[in-house]
Inverse folding.
């Protein structure tokens, strides 16, 4: 005897969902697990005496830690603070979502607000309000996006190909890092070259050790840096081996080299590093962001960074990530809004996490969309990766929201990858660094990820990388090699990016390059003041977003049907025999076919030839000793009415309605139109055996039996998403042939080849 | 000259002839052919203190005083050699300097050798804070 488990089996089903791999933590402020508020968070407050900040958020100047000191000295504007701090937090929160309050007014107030004040204001906003406020407050009007370009072998050929592909998809920035840190120089050259294929203007970063990264920047290969991390508690900062002053000094150093820079901070880092002071994530993050504004960096990579998976385990964690991004843009910082850590195994949580940013827009929606496959992402998998890139393209199209990307035709992708691989090979050959074989190159061009390639291995790359570094190869050497080897366009493109540092225009807040022009918060400021203002998807951009692959139109449907027409012509002949008569024989069952059946349409959406469907239905009726009769209706294409009209003509009073797309019904003369005997509404999964059963059951009803209805089993497939576009186009062909009052026509059918 | 405003931005587009590299070459002179023949080198592709001061004016006009200050600190570091920059950065990291004096010496070097007044003040400010917070202790 089997034991009945004392558990609702649904829980066992749920156990198998990817979601259950995610682990969740209880709210526990004392141990740092609190998103928005903690008893240890200070109350907002400021005291200014003689132009000096005497206390901030409940801490006397005498007791300031490094972070308080830096914020009080470099962030707080004492001229604005008294007014800003005196405002009611809820009132300021309402201003954030009031489309009539200009962004500039709020930005100015933030200059006088302490971390606790900023946190208390945004805490008043629910998720929807945070997203709306984010959309209104972000600095640059036009949204953009950033990609990770890395691979598990640090293979430079693949980096070049993937950089070119990312550029073609429209990423405004690409960021690489290495599995083996000494491969940095090779990665830098490979991405710089690959990123110059197709167009110019994609900014590039090579995330490595601070000093090395700056050296690579000085050699001209990179154009921005963002892995300059800051933290919200003093001890974490020190454990991170920096102070606000060392990081601010680094910021000035980057400016002095003409390299765009932003800092990085995100909720959960203090918690991960063990020094959270029992403060809430939001309060600590508000400190990080005030620090960053004080340091004078133009922007931040914020929220949803390495701490995001931890933050997402906490109640309200995902709302908190959006709230900290809001503080970032309110402080007038460019915001690369995270979404670069895979914070969940649930695809639903992934989609839910990205949507607010996609519809609100962001300076860089992801601060690393994994343009490569998950296993190739040397930063760790992103929220979205190469696997899901097309899903993202479709989300853009669904919501008519500009996520910064543009669909890329398959042949164009292949061409660009080949070009990038050839360009980098030419550079490596010309500089005597390596000579890739044809097989290596070809495997990379067509490979989806590094598991598919037969190219350089990390050790080969280390030798190349060290040679680049030791020989002091600079970007000008690479530009020369490109030009010499016939890649003049790429040489020009690469030079254009390096030239950006001469004017320094791209050092301003939220700068990116579009169509060869600088677009930043200065010449493209977010001017949102309600509907009709701010960023709008233009008609031409909308058409670009719409251009995903494999879309159906009526022509496509007719083309596909025309292919089947020839095939059907060999299998069946339909002859019109004149007006259909009222049947009198009790063994007469009428099969009512739709207007385009066998004339314009030749197979069901389940892929069955109409000749086969008719053969099995009629065969089953004959098998019961009854007589099938085929009648074409012209007054309707609707299944129910086809069935009912057929039943009314049938001597037995039983009819079958059969649409060309395969939807079928058994009807009886005196029933209401939609009160049929049996219905197959899911044509795409209806198989021939079901149609055979349908014929058999129609015969049974005619013989006054009560058969077991044929059930077409479904596994819950999203039939509508798979077939409705095609079905609607097919059905329009049917309805296009209907005529008011058209008389039913008797059809003679001859099967001309063996039935299957 | 009047102060730059946001209307002057981007300078590479509004006044390309006045945007010059470190050796005085204009944007129009920095061409691929010039790179190939060697008359344009990395030196010409470096930002200048003037360019950073210009961007600071624009940032200030756009309501971003802290960003402007960073550009001004950056302007002071343009002529500072890389190894000196990296040494100063290293010294500012926790536990590297074991006394306030080391940082004050670094500040004086910036002020006297490179006329980097803002940077010097900034390092001095760090020195006082590190002392207050006990950061001059050896980290193993």
């Amino acid at each position: 005897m089997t034991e009945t488990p004392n558990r609702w089996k649904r829980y066992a089903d749920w156990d198998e969902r990817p979601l259950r791999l995610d682990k969740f933590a209880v709210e526990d402020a004392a141990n740092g697990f609190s998103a928005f508020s903690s008893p240890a968070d200070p109350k907002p407050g400021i005291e200014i005496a003689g132009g000096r900040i005497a206390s901030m958020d409940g801490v006397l100047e005498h007791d300031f830690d490094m972070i308080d000191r830096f914020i009080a000295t470099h962030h707080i504007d004492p001229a604005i603070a008294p007014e800003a701090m005196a405002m009611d937090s809820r009132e300021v929160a309402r201003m954030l979502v009031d489309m009539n309050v200009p962004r500039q007014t709020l930005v100015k107030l933030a200059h006088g607000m302490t971390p606790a004040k900023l946190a208390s204001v945004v805490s008043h906003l629910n998720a929807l309000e945070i997203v709306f406020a984010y959309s209104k407050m972000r600095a640059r009007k036009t949204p953009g996006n950033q990609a990770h370009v890395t691979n598990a072998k640090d293979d430079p050929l693949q980096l070049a190909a993937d950089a070119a592909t990312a550029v073609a998809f429209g990423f405004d920035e690409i960021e690489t890092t290495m599995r083996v840190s000494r491969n940095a120089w090779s990665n830098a050259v490979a991405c710089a070259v690959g990123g110059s294929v197709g167009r110019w203007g994609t900014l590039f970063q090579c995330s490595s050790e601070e000093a090395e990264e700056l050296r690579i920047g000085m050699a001209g290969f990179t154009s921005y840096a963002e892995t300059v991390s800051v933290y919200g508690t003093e001890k974490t900062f020190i454990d991170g081996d920096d102070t606000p002053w060392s990081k601010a000094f680094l910021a000035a150093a980057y400016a002095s080299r003409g390299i765009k820079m932003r800092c990085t901070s995100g909720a959960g880092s203090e918690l991960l590093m063990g020094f959270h002071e029992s403060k809430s994530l939001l309060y600590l993050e508000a400190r990080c962001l005030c620090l960053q504004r004080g340091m004078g960096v133009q922007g931040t990579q914020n929220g949803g960074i390495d701490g995001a998976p931890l933050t997402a385990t906490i109640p309200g964690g995902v709302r908190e990530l959006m709230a900290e991004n809001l503080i970032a843009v309110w402080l007038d910082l460019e915001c690369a809004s995270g979404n670069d850590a895979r914070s969940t195994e649930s695809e639903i949580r992934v989609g839910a996490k990205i949507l607010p940013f996609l519809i609100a827009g962001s300076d860089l929606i992801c601060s690393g969309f994994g343009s490569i496959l998950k296993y190739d992402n040397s930063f760790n998998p992103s929220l979205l990766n190469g696997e899901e890139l097309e899903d993202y393209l479709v989300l853009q199209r669904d919501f008519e929201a500009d996520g910064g990307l543009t669909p890329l035709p398959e042949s164009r992708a292949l061409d660009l990858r080949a070009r990038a691989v050839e360009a980098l090979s030419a550079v490596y050959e010309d500089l005597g660094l390596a000579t890739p074989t044809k097989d290596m190159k070809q495997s990379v061009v067509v490979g989806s990820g590094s598991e598919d390639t037969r190219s350089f291995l990390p050790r080969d790359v280390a030798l190349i990388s060290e040679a680049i570094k030791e020989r002091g190869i600079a970007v000008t050497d690479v530009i020369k090699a490109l030009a010499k080897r016939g890649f003049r366009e790429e040489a020009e493109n690469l030079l254009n990016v390096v030239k950006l540092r001469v004017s320094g225009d791209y050092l301003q807040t939220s700068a990116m390059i579009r169509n060869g022009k600088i677009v930043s918060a200065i010449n493209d400021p977010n001017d949102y003041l309600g509907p009709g203002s701010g960023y709008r998807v233009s008609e031409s951009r909308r058409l670009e977003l719409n251009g995903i692959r494999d879309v159906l139109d009526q022509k496509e449907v007719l083309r596909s049907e025309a292919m089947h027409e020839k095939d059907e012509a060999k299998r069946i002949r339909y002859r019109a025999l004149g007006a259909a008569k009222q049947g009198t024989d009790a063994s007469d069952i009428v099969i009512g076919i739709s207007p385009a059946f066998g004339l314009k349409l030749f197979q069901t959406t389940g892929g069955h030839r109409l000749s086969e469907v008719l053969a099995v239905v009629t065969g089953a009726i004959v098998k019961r000793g009854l007589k099938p009769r085929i009648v074409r209706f012209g007054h309707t294409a609707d299944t129910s009415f086809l069935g009912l009209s057929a039943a009314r003509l049938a001597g037995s009073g039983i009819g079958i309605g059969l649409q060309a797309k395969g939807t079928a019904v058994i009807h009886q003369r005196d029933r209401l139109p939609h009160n049929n005997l049996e219905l197959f509404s899911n044509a795409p999964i209806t198989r021939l055996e079901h149609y055979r059963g349908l014929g058999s059951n129609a015969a049974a009803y005619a013989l006054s039996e009560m058969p077991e209805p044929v059930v077409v089993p479904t596994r819950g497939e999203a039939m509508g998403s798979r077939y409705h576009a095609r079905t609607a186009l097919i059905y329009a062909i049917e309805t296009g042939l209907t005529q008011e009052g058209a008389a039913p026509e008797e059809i003679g059918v001859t099967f001309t080849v063996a039935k299957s | 000259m009047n102060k730059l405003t946001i209307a002057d931005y981007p300078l590479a587009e509004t006044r390309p002839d006045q945007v010059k590299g470190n050796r005085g070459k204009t944007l129009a002179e920095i061409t691929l052919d010039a790179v190939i023949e060697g008359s344009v080198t990395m030196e010409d592709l470096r930002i200048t203190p003037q360019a950073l001061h210009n961007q600071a004016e624009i940032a200030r006009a756009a309501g971003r005083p802290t960003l402007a200050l960073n550009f001004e600190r950056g302007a002071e570091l343009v002529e500072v050699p890389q190894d000196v920059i990296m040494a100063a950065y290293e010294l500012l990291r926790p536990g590297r300097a074991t006394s306030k004096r080391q940082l004050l010496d670094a500040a004086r070097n910036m002020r006297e050798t490179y006329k980097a007044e803002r940077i010097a003040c900034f390092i001095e400010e760090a020195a006082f804070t590190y002392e207050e917070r006990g950061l001059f202790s050896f980290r193993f």
User: Anything to note?
Assistant: Chain A has two domains: 146-543, 554-751. Residues 685 and 715 of chain A are 10 Å apart (CA to CA). Residues 554-751 of chain A form a domain with the Rossmann fold fold (CATH 3.40.50.10150). The two ends of chain A are 45 Å apart (CA to CA).
